[in-house]
Specification:
Shape: elongated
Strand order of the largest sheet: 8-11-12-6-13-14
CATH superfamily of the largest domain: ABC transporter type 1, transmembrane domain
Number of domains: 2
Number of strands: 16
CATH topology of the largest domain: ABC transporter transmembrane region fold
Strand content: 5-15%
């Protein structure tokens, strides 16, 4: 049974976790940049607010001149508005530059933080085994981007709304003055009207927009699943085409997208209701202050300039107070992305907790003092505690070549993963020679996109082999046709056959023979002559390398010094049965074999 996913955590806990994670940008080596961007963005907000206040003052100046038919002041106001336009444009550009650079730098930090946690301790592999979280790559790339970009937008919007509302409430209070209705004097009546009107529209928008949070989060999850299905189809295109699975894959993709469409419809319905209220508000909001100020204007208590200045200030206050409601849909997008990022971060901690096992034990990877590879009391379990292999005690000397055999399900490949540090579940110790270079050869070699020369040197942990060495190894591995193409850039995993890829893996390992070579069915795609050729080359080119070779194909015994056989009795965990040096098990008997 798989553990409960981190997304099952309450939404408020996920948001608190996201806050703790994201605010780490303000500590450590990035804190100086974080504070500089924060203060810079706040300064830009104040500059833009100053420009908006100046434009508001210009309204009074212009309309008073228009009311008085003062041509000189009208001409002057035209020049002033041109200057204000330049200042406003410059302030807007400055704010855009600072805001977007802030978003980029913060996102870069978050992406690096999440990627590091994902890759370290081989969590990227363990998450794929446990299926603890879906689409971690999409959470790092897309949700990480949205969670930061929208957060900066919201923080900027909220701060801007607060200082704008505070500034223009003062303007409304002074310009609008008081009004007497039915013998009752209401001071700052335009301020009261703006607050009441904004409260009503905000309440309506939040009421209609609240269900969007869950709907947008559900839609984002469906979109991620659809992208994953498309990627999986592309990565397995050849196999699907060979077995004629085109139609089945098309049906699956259609079904997956049907979920996307269904959840999109729910979002569209909610957004349509919000748009109905928003469009109505866009028409009413500029008219209401004119209607409220008209009695005082007609009574001669306000000039035309005062009325237009008050109307502009009323609109600014109303927009500021309605900012959250107007951005409810984007707020829902942020909630969804922030929760998905927080769930990914929580899955790393969950994984570390599972690695310790139910009894608080895990496989200890350490160093041996005598240069040998040792398994001491090693037990390997599933993440749920079920033991697959128990109490293994093995010692492999430097230069020894050891074959690991056993029936399917006895844990041969899992033993390899444990030795690589990929599989922490279990108990006991794996001691490796200190500072030993270790190479792993899986059944399906990984060949990165790029040149063949770079792929031969992957990973770059030692001096690259020279051209003469590379050429001789390629010829020895039957890959001489690739020698002229060493510096061509391509996706070689899609060009080379399975057998060519396995022979390429031998050439890569032997170009810089490591101290320890751990192999998991590395000749499964080769015929018998090809397998013999590769194993003979391995013994000839890496005589000092310790080899641990998991395999079940016949004909491999003569290339190894001894055998470790995994067997399971009565459905229990597999046990290690070690053959004497030079003896091989045939049925129930140990027989001497000839090299």
């Amino acid at each position: 049974m798989n553990p409960a996913p981190p997304e099952a955590l309450p939404p408020d806990r996920l948001l608190r976790r996201f806050a703790r994670l994201a605010l780490g940008f303000w500590s450590g080596p990035t804190r100086r940049a974080a504070y500089l961007f924060t203060f810079g963005l706040f300064a830009c907000l104040l500059l833009n607010l100053g420009a908006a206040v100046a434009v508001n003052r210009w309204n009074k100046f212009f309309f008073d001149a228009l009311q008085n038919k003062d041509q000189r002041l009208i001409a002057l106001s035209i020049g002033l508005v041109a200057a204000l336009a330049l200042v406003s444009a410059a302030a807007g550009v400055a704010q855009l530059q600072v805001r977007m650079r802030f978003q980029l730098r913060w996102r870069q930090w978050l992406t690096d933080t999440l990627s590091t946690r994902w890759m370290e301790k081989r969590r990227f592999y363990q998450l794929s085994v446990l299926s603890l979280i879906d689409n971690p790559e999409a959470r790092i790339a897309e949700d990480g981007r949205l969670s930061i970009e929208l957060f900066v937008d919201f923080a900027t919007g909220v701060v801007n709304a607060l200082i704008t509302a505070a500034t223009f409430v003062g303007v409304l209070w002074i310009v609008g003055g008081a009004i007497t209705l039915f013998g009752v004097t209401v001071p700052g009546y335009l301020v009261v009207a703006a607050i009441i009107y904004s409260a009503l529209t905000s309440f309506g928008m939040l009421l209609l927009g609240r269900p969007l949070v869950a709907r947008v989060e559900s839609k984002a999850s469906a979109e991620a699943d659809f992208r994953y299905e498309l990627t999986r189809t592309r990565e397995n295109a050849e196999t699907i085409a060979l077995i004629g699975g085109d139609e089945d894959e098309r049906v699956k993709l259609a079904a997956t997208f049907a979920k996307v469409a269904e959840r999109w419809k729910a979002v569209i319905g909610g957004q349509a209701r919000m748009l109905f209220l928003s469009n109505g508000n866009n028409v009413l909001a500029p008219v209401i202050p004119l209607l409220l100020g008209a009695p005082k204007y007609l009574a001669g208590e306000m000039t035309l300039g005062d009325l237009m200045q008050a109307a502009a200030a009323f609109t600014q206050v109303q927009m500021a107070l309605n900012w959250l409601a107007d951005n409810a849909l984007r707020l829902a997008d942020w909630f969804a992305s922030a929760r998905r990022v927080a769930a990914l971060d929580a899955s790393f901690d969950k994984l570390d907790g599972l690695a310790a096992g139910a009894a608080g034990a895990s496989i200890d990877l350490g160093f041996s003092e005598d240069g040998a590879l040792r398994l001491i009391g090693l037990s390997i379990a599933q993440h749920d505690g079920r033991v697959m292999m128990a109490d293994a005690d093995v010692r492999i000397e430097p230069g020894e070549k050891v074959l690991v055999t056993g029936d399917s399900g006895t844990g041969k490949s899992t033993l390899i993963r444990a030795m690589a540090g990929l599989w922490p579940w279990g108990a006991g110790s794996i001691l490796r020679p200190k500072d030993a270079r270790i190479a792993f050869m899986p059944q399906r070699p990984y060949i990165p996109i790029g040149t063949l020369r770079a792929a031969l040197d992957y990973p770059n942990d030692a001096e690259p082999a020279g051209d003469e060495r590379i050429g001789s190894l390629l010829r020895a591995c039957g890959l001489d046709h690739l020698e002229p193409r060493l510096d061509e850039t391509d996706n070689w995993a899609n060009i080379l056959s399975g057998g060519e890829q396995q022979r390429f893996a031998f050439a890569r390992v032997l170009s810089k023979p490591p101290d320890i070579i751990i192999m998991d069915e590395p000749t499964s795609a080769l015929d018998e002559p090809g397998q013999t050729r590769m194993m003979e080359l391995l013994r000839a080119e890496a005589p000092g390398s310790m080899v641990l070779h998991v395999a079940h194909r016949p004909g491999l015994a003569r290339f190894h010094d001894r055998e470790i056989h995994l067997k399971r009795d009565d459905g229990g965990p597999a046990m290690v049965e070690e053959a004497p040096r030079g003896l091989w098990k045939i049925g129930a008997r140990w027989l001497t074999t000839r090299r």
